[in-house]
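FIELD: query
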Amino acid sequence: MNSVLYIVIPCYNEEAVLPITAPLFRDKLLSLSQQGKISPDSRVLFVNDGSKDNTWNLICQLAKEDEHYMGICLSRNRGHQNALLAGLMEAKDKCDITISIDCDGQDDINAMDAMVDEYLSGAEIVYGVRSKRDTDTFFKRFTAESFYKVMLARGADSGLYHADDRRVSSRARKEFANFREVNIFLRGMFPLVGFKSTCVYYERHERIAGESHYPLKKMLALAFDGITSLSIKPIRIITGLGVFISLAAFALIIYALVSYFTGNVVSGWASSLIVTCFLGGIQLICLGVIGEYVGKIYMETKARPRFIISQRTEDKQ
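FIELD: result
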């Protein structure tokens, strides 16, 4: 019996692009089914992340008109990562494999064929990886490459250019469900599950319609969450920096004492001011990073639900 595939698609204010991309996802399901690679019971699962426009009504209409569509609606906007997690957990016991992809049509839908083939070859997790970033500005390309290199240096093997386009087996999803943390960064967490994995490379296109809902502010917040959510290495870097500055300060004290006793003393306030400001800035940065970890611990101890599903399309049918 062929495997059941669910395409999980987070949506936030996507009324402009949803009518265009939804048929594309459905057609890909039908194509894979006709090739005998997946079961006819496969579905497109939309996750409405508290949209303020007509997105949820469009999802309900699609589900009413075609059984290949289904959807869940979160009680409020929880962010892309939590919305994607909600879809994966919703599909956990309903299908054999999931493929997560954004609604905007930028990720190559045809890469799903290769992802399914890799699954049939025994891979539990298949990462969709951009082959190049020619369509990005220099700033976005530079910052993205820098971020992934920092993640790799910290031991988070999320893969260069890997975002949230991935294929996950039911076995990997069930193990991933044991990850209970509130502060989530999926592209760094899935490699921690282990199992056999591989990559599928594709080119990313321009957004088909609508506007991006991931401005610089959100991208920076996601990057910082990724850096601080997976390890304590930044705190260890702070410790190393503190040791280095302490040793440098100790050397300066010895130099000052030698200069004093030899009479080679030059009065001036500039050097003192610079050193004071430098050390003050380092201390504030260190306190900020440590505070970020304390805040994450605070959120984890509360153990609040990462998402709440308020409606399902089948409830309206």
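FIELD: remark
The mean pLDDT is 75.
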